[in-house]
Amino acid sequence: MLTGKQKRFLRAKSHHLKPIFQVGKSGVTENLNKQLEDVLEKRELIKISILQNCLEDKYTVADEISVATNSEIVQIIGNNIVLYKESENHNQIVLPE
């Protein structure tokens, strides 16, 4: 579980990121979750965009992805979700205490 200070730190780091995945009409699929896990292992912090044709609520999508990838939701702003998962092999981000 992330503390408030850690979430602030990660929000600041994610500000300049562009969304690298989009969730559309088909919603959250098993293939999407597999790709997200791979990218989270490499980058640790990613931004996902939810398209307007997505039938599910953005909070539901964020929860589904978070549970499937075992990651933390840093922020949901507009139609963007920011996720963080500490990497096992590619540690790049050092969180504040």
UniProtKB/TrEMBL annotation:
It comes from Pseudogracilibacillus auburnensis. It holds the Pfam family CRS1_YhbY. NCBIfam families: RNA_bind_YhbY. Residues 1-96 form the CRM domain. The lineage of its organism: Bacteria, Bacillati, Bacillota, Bacilli, Bacillales. This is RNA-binding protein. GO terms for molecular function: RNA binding. SMART domains: CRS1_YhbY (SM01103). InterPro entries: RNA-binding_CRM, RNA-binding_domain, RNA-binding_YhbY, YhbY-like_sf. Keywords: RNA-binding. It comes from the Bacteria. The keyword Cell wall biogenesis/degradation does not apply.
